[in-house]
Amino acid sequence: MANAGEVIKEIVEDAPLVFKALEAAVELIRTWSAGDAEAKAACEAQAGAMLDARHQTKASHEERLAHLDSEIQAGFDAQKDSRPEAPKLDEFDTSDVKK
Amino acid sequence: MTARVYGLVGRRIGLIHLVFALLAGCGMGTYYKGVATGAVVVAAQYRALDEADDRKVAAIEPYARTQPARALADRKEWVTVYNKARSAVEVQDDLVIGALREGPAIEALRDNRKEVANWINAITIGAANAAQALRDAGVDWQKFLTGGK
C-alpha cells in the first residue's frame, strides 16, 4: 500500500495534467453553451489556433532536422578525416599486373 | 455512416468518440460546436507531436557526431513514424477546415441534418484515425488538450 508521501507525490506530479483536462473541459463547455453565432465565432478562433499549431509544428520539425543533419554530416566528415589517407596509385607496385 | 461511427466507438472506446457521437445528427449550432471541438483536438495533437519530435531529435543529437551512422538510422526511423502521424493529423485538420468552409452552404439548406451529421461523423472518424496514429507513434496527445488559444 502506498504511503501518504507517495500519494501526495503522485497528486503533485499529475496536477498539471489534471489542470489541462479541466481547462479543456471548461473551454468545451463554454463553446457548447454558446448560441449559433457565438459557436461559429468560437469555431473560427479554434480553427485559427489549429492552423497556427500546424505551421509551428512543421517549422520546428524542419529546423530540428536541419540542425541534426548538420551534426550527422559533421560526424561523417570527422570519420573521413581521421582515416589514414588512401595511398596514391603510383605508390603501388603494379609490375605484377597482367597487361 | 452513423452505424460506422458506432462500430468505431465499439472498437476503440474513448472519450473523443463519445463526445463526437453525442454531437452527431444535431442542428447548426451543434455543427459549429462539433467542428470547434475537432479543431481543439487537432491543435492538441499538433502540440503533442511537436513535443515528441523535440524529445526524439534531442535524444539523437548527443551521438550524432560520434556515431553518425547510428544517428542517421535512428533519424530515419523516427521521421518515418513522425510523418505517418503528422499525415493523419493533417487529414483531420483538412476536414475541420473543409467543414468550416462548408458552414454557410449547409446553413442555407432547408433541411441540413444529413450534411451536419455527415461532417461531424467524418471529423469523428478523422479524429479517431489521428489518435490511433499518434498512439502508434507513442505520442500521448490528450495531455495537450487545452482551449486551443
Please give a structural write-up.
The complex is a heterodimer of chains A (99) and B (149). Chain A is mainly α. Chain A is 77% helix and 0% strand. Chain A has two helices and no strands. The model of chain A has no long low-confidence stretch (mean pLDDT 75). By secondary structure, chain B is mainly α. Chain B has five helices and no strands. In chain B, helix 3 packs antiparallel against helix 4, helix 3 packs parallel to helix 5 and helix 4 runs antiparallel to helix 5. Chain B is elongated. The N terminus of chain B is likely disordered. The interface between A and B is large, with 45 and 48 residues.
Largest sheet of chain B: none
- Biggest beta-sheet profile of chain A: none
> What is the strand tally of chain B?
0
- Say what oligomer this is: heterodimer
Distance between the termini of chain A: 85 Å
How much of the polypeptide of chain A forms β-strand, as a percent range? under 5%
Please name the two chains that share the biggest interface, counting residues whose Cβ lies under 8 Å from a Cβ on the partner chain. A-B, 45 and 48 residues
Summarize it.
Helix content of chain A is 77%, strand content 0%. Chain A is mainly alpha-helical and 99 residues long.
Q: What distinguishing features does this structure have?
A:
heterodimer, A: 99 residues, mainly alpha, 2 helices, 77% helix, elongated, B: 149 residues
Strand and helix layout:
The complex is a heterodimer of chains A (99) and B (149).
Chain A: H1 4-32, H2 36-82
Chain B: H1 2-11, H2 15-23, H3 28-60, H4 68-108, H5 113-136
